[in-house]
Design goal:
The complex is a heterodimer of chains A (266) and B (189). With 266 residues, chain A is an alpha+beta fold. Chain A folds into 2 domains: 55 residues, Electron transport complex subunit B, putative Fe-S cluster (3-methyladenine DNA Glycosylase II, Chain A, domain 3), CATH 1.10.15.40; 163 residues, Alpha-Beta Plaits, CATH 3.30.70. Chain A has 10 helices and 8 strands. In chain A, helix 2 packs across helix 3. The relative contact order of chain A is 0.11. Chain B is globular and about 60 Å long. The N and C termini of chain B lie close together (11 Å). The relative contact order of chain B is 0.21. Classes of the chains: A alpha+beta (266), B mainly alpha (189). At the A-B interface, helix 1 of A face helix 3 and helix 4 of B.
């Protein structure tokens, strides 16, 4: 009988010793964790998209409590998360208008031809390394879907070989804007829906010869804009959204349909 | 065998990581920065010495009751306790280091270098002081390997390595070369 009891006794003693020591240690070295951090982390969507500028939702929750970060930085969570977080933190928060991504290129397969058949890795950044992409326009959407693969919401699709954003699904996280090798995607308030769907810096003659819907810098929009928001810079029109009233006059006057109102699927 | 010989033997001749394949996972895992490798080394030295100091009397106890066949379980229990202790203390005193070490800190529990030291002490028939010296030496050897390797790795980061080798393959190749340099000590003792 003792052959069984002795090992059991020794291990029990060892276990108790370890237990007591660790309990004392955990009491002496207890780390005071702010319970708000956990609550905020729960309120966040846990998408870990990084759009807030912190590495993951838990890091953002920690930054709100300990480093005084703003409560409304979470884009996927939007107004709901900001409301809950501000309630936990006991501060007033103003939630900005919902932001979405806009693709500033309208050069689909019907308007601009390809200069070679690309058969390599199906990614824009890979294709872009071969002579600035397979399209004749060197600053157009290549349509291999780098933005599609990073989108956490599945809001982007490739239609007629260019990217289209479904505004209703888009959460405005801006990951697509970072992924696009030609920097064609802008993240902006959803109400500022008028945009120049061309980013080409080529002079009008060249743009005209390679894309039917590229901005040729004719300045018709600039002349007709009442608030002086649209200007031609580097051979294509650029809108200053501080001044833009979203009236849509530029959309009406643009003969080549480069300035568009983007809603629904843009 | 003198204590100095044990120490030199541990650190250089039979380097626990570079000559005996023990404790490779933190060696590769936390050697990215010099700071975290020093922290890891210190944690391992502490655990090794404490574990040795406790397992020595525990083994004598097991021997007395003729139940030495239970030594693995007993040793792991002791080691796990000290790792837990280090974790609790480090979380309080050095949160950045705690974060940098990440999962590798609790992994010391199953680090074969730590269990290897305690069992090696028994197999070599060391007395208490020799055992502690051996633990200290092995811990230092582990720290030295990590430190050396963190230096090598930082220069790998800056160098123009072929694209296909970047990351883990480059690290493993570098580890093999660092290990090669320690082969020069073979047979000194």
């Amino acid at each position: 009988m003792t052959t069984y009891l002795i090992p059991i006794g020794i291990f029990a003693a060892l276990g108790i010793l370890a237990g007591v020591l660790l309990t004392v240690a955990s009491k002496v070295f207890a780390v005071e964790t702010d319970e708000r951090v956990e609550k905020i982390a729960e309120a966040l969507p846990q998408a870990n998209c990084g759009a807030c500028g912190f590495s993951g939702c838990n890091d953002y929750a920690d930054a709100i409590v300990n480093k005084g970060a703003e409560c409304n930085l979470c884009k996927p969570g939007g107004a709901d998360s900001a409301a809950v977080i501000s309630q936990i933190m006991g501060v007033e928060v103003t939630v900005g208008e919902r932001e979405v991504a806009f693709v500033r290129c309208s050069g689909d397969c019907n308007t601009t031809p390809h200069k070679y058949d690309y058969d390599g890795i199906q990614s824009c950044s890979a294709c872009n390394r071969f002579y600035n992409g397979s399209k004749l326009c060197t600053s157009g959407c290549l349509g291999y879907g780098d933005c599609v693969s990073v989108c956490p919401e599945g809001a982007i699709s490739i239609v007629d070989r260019i990217a289209k954003v479904d505004i209703n699904k888009c959460i405005g996280c801006g990951l697509c804007a970072k992924a696009c090798p030609n920097n064609l995607i802008a993240v902006r308030k959803v109400s500022q829906s008028v945009d120049v769907c061309c980013s080409s810096n080529d002079i009008g003659r060249i743009t005209r010869s390679i894309c039917h819907s590229g901005c040729i810098g004719c300045k018709l929009c600039e002349k007709n804009c009442e608030s002086g928001a649209i200007k031609v810079v580097d051979n294509h029109a650029v809108i200053d959204y501080e001044k833009c009233t979203n009236c849509g006059k530029c959309v009406d006057v643009c003969k080549i349909h480069a300035v568009r109102r983007l809603d629904g699927l843009n | 065998m003198s204590y100095l010989m044990i120490l030199i033997g541990c650190v250089f001749v039979n380097n626990v990581v570079l000559s005996q394949f023990m404790g490779i996972c933190p060696f590769l895992g936390v050697s990215k920065q010099m700071k975290s490798s020093v922290g890891m080394g210190a944690a391992v030295i502490f655990v090794m010495i404490c574990a040795t100091a406790i397992t020595y009397p525990v083994y004598r106890l097991l021997e007395k009751f003729e139940i030495t066949y239970l030594k693995t379980v007993a040793f792991i229990l002791v080691i796990a306790m000290f790792v837990q202790l280090v974790e609790i203390v480090m979380k309080k005193m050095m949160p950045p280091l705690y974060k940098a070490l990440g999962v590798y800190l609790p992994l010391i529990t199953t680090n074969c270098a730590v269990l290897g030291v305690t069992i090696g002490n028994i197999d070599n028939g060391y007395n208490f002081l020799q055992s502690v010296t051996n633990a200290l030496g092995t811990g230092l050897a582990f720290t030295l390997a990590l430190l050396l390797f963190s230096g090598v790795r930082s220069s790998i980061e800056d160098s123009d390595f072929p694209e296909t080798f970047k990351g883990v393959p480059a690290t493993l190749i570098a580890a093999s070369i660092v290990s090669l340099s320690f082969m020069g000590f073979t047979g000194i003792i």
